[in-house]
Specification:
The chain contains twelve helices and eight strands. It has 307 residues and is an alpha+beta fold. The radius of gyration is 30 Å and the shape is elongated. The chain folds into two domains: 96 residues, no CATH class; 194 residues, Muramoyl-pentapeptide Carboxypeptidase, domain 2 (2-Layer Sandwich), CATH 3.30.1380. It has a four-stranded antiparallel beta sheet. A two-stranded parallel ribbon has the order 1-2. It binds zinc ion.
Amino acid sequence: MAKRKKRKINVFRLFILGLICVLLIFLLGFGIKKILFSSKETPIIKEEKYDEIVQAGFTIEEAKELASLSNYWPSRLERYAAYTKADTLEQRVMEVNCDMDLEPYAQTTIVEDDTDVTYLVNKFYALPDGYVPDDLVGLDVFACVQGQDYSCQDVDVIQLRKEVYDAYIKWCKAAEKENIEIRAIAGYRSYEYQKGLWDYNAQIHGQEYADSYYARPGQSEHNTGLAVDITFNGYNFNEIENYDGYEWILENAHKYGFILRYPEDKVDVTRYGYESWHFRYVGKDVATKIYENNWTLEEYYGAKEEA
Ligand SMILES: [Zn+2]
């Protein structure tokens, strides 16, 4: 009998102990929940953000690193996961933001607003069909002369958008003081012109050939009126990088709002071969930022927060 009673007491004790444990666990859980929910940092939402990244195939550490990058674009998560060429996550994000994970012309975003002169036109961003800037101005000075300068654009007068025209004149005047006579050999080119050029070459040599040598209509920077091809002191435009004076042009372009658009060491980013003569106007501030960071226009956007 005594033994039985003892066992009964033990069972009762165990039961009470269990009850206390359950109660403790419940209180503890409740307490943690309360701390989490009452904190203003809302870590619950943050954890969910990591969840999504982890589900895309990243480790929790990688997820935290990705989420901490200011230029992490949530809409490109799947593309970050699929692209494995870069050495670091930071590089991977930048390269995917620059569309380096895509084949040229794999997708096209139409640029509708031309009021911000920094907008991107490349093998992924295009102008609307038949786009014509409404503030083109004829270049009356610092322009090549037909029949006299090699590769002078075959038009009555080279045109640029007004803001670009003003900046270009200032740049040329400053160059003149250094005995560098800059001449524009090409400026605005129409949508129809580019279409004719591309269509003709695609018809004769095939689409692949046309794509490797000519921008598709609406995807040439010359269609924007923001780009200018230059030469100086009478040199052939495609050899200017070999002459004294070119260094000055490169080092000072940003002060007037221009950037070398297709640098030799950025072919994999711009998806264009080196063009020592092609300069793009983006305004002084953005040009300086691009110059100081040794970026392309693609990287300038790639370093920003998601638009
Ligand atoms: Zn050009």
